[in-house]
Structure formats: C-alpha cells, structure tokens
Amino acid sequence: IIFVSLYSTYNTRLEFYLADSTETFFSNAMKVQAINDAIEELLEEYDIPEFSKRATIVFDSNGLVALPSDYFRMIKLWDVDSSGVEETEYMYITEDKFDSKAATDAYYWTEDYIVADAARKLKVLPTNSGTLQIRYIKKHTAVTSTDSADSGLQSRWDKAIAASACKNLLDNAGQQNEALKWEKNAMQWKVKAWSAISGRGGFKEGKRIKSRYERISLLNR
Questions:
Q1: Which of 146, 156, 145 is nearest to 192 (CA)?
Q2: Which terminal Cβ of the chain has fewer Cβ within 10 Å, N or C?
Q3: By three-state DSSP, how is residue 71 classified?
Q4: Relative orientation angle of helices 158-172 and 28-45, to the nearest 10 degrees
C-alpha cells in the first residue's frame, strides 16, 4: 500500500515544528506555497520512484519532440532494439554545445526553446533518431488547503517535506538561524528516507561491496 499525504498532513507537522498553530505569522496560503516548494525541491534532488515515468517518444525529422505534459526533468533517454534490449543511451549536452554539432553526430540530447514552435522541446542527435525511450520525473500535483489533492509522496517523506517548508517560511521571515537549523533537519530526514528506498533491492543491491572502479569517477581514474 502506498500512503500519500495531504496538505493537512504536512501542516500538522509544520505547526508543530513552528510551535505555532495559529495564522498570526504564517497564513494558510504561505504554508501551502512553502509545502509545494519543498516538494519541488525534493523532486529536483532525488529520483523518487513514485514520480518516475517511462514512455516511448517519437522525434520528427528535425530531431524534435514536444515535452510530455507532466514532464519535470529527465532521468534517462535511450534506444532499444527490436527485442526491447537497450542499445544506446543518449548523453545530455547544453544548448550551446548542441548547436555546434552536426545533424549526424551521435548520441546527444538537450532541451531548448524552439522559436518556430514558441515552445521548449527535446532535441536529439542524430536528427533521424526516430522512436526513443524516455524515463523522467513527472510534475507533482500541488497540494491545497482544501485537501483536494495529495502530494503523491509516500508518508516516509512527511518529516522532510514539513521541515523543508519550515525552513522556507523562516527564511522568508528573515529568521536565518532558525531556517538553517530546519534545513539541516530536512537534509537528514531526506537522506534517511532515500536510504530506505535506495536499498529496496536488498543486500545485493544496496549493501554489496563495490569494486574500486565502481566507486571512483572515470574523471579521477
């Protein structure tokens, strides 16, 4: 069972952390914004499984395709053979570097504003890449004070989200020392929650001893 959390769930913790259950200093609207900002910050930092989506996308002859409507950020873009086995992973490069490449260069992707379409799109090289696989982090549905939408996150993230929201509110109020304290708390609780997820494959996945070549970046070898 996946437990998801509403605004009221986060707000109960948030009021406890702030030691204030009134709206004298922070209104409902301010707390809603702080909570949604905290969720977005989390999705920027971690590949949360319940927000990870996979899809098939088709690039046109110019190597362009519209962003999925719920796209937040890319995890991976790759090609598969006829049996579904991965063949090639595309590497991200900045728009400026992408512009300097030839149409036949391979295998790269970027995200750029297309003037003719008045929209941001995904771009790939070579331009004849065609059908590719994408895995991305989707946008979250914003929580509201009416509890009409849940965050989509499991309850293990409640403490981290409330702490991040607390940090956002205190920082906005100019209470930097208190904000720093809650930023540290949020970081610790995020790491703890992520550790439980990243080790979900058991000992072989999360605890096995890695070789030197797995632990050291290619740039440092």
A1: 156
A2: N
A3: strand
A4: 120
Q: Which residues contact 47 (CB under 8 A, 6 or more apart)?
A: 75, 137
Nearest to 185 by CA among 2, 6, 16: 16
What is the rounded distance in angstroms from the CA atom of residue 6 to the CA atom of residue 193? 18
Q: Which of 150, 176, 177, 148 is nearest to 161 (CA)?
A: 150
d(Cα 96, Cα 203) in Å, to the nearest integer?
43
Per-residue pLDDT at 203: 52
What is the per-residue DSSP string for 91-149?
EE--HHHHHTS-TT--SEEEEEEEGGGTEEEEEEESTT--EEEEEEEEPPPPP-TT--S
Structure-token pair, residue 89:
């992973």
**CB–CB of 124/63 below 8 Å?**
yes
Arithmetic mean of pLDDT over the chain? 89
The answer, yes or no, to whether residue 40 has pLDDT greater than 70, is yes
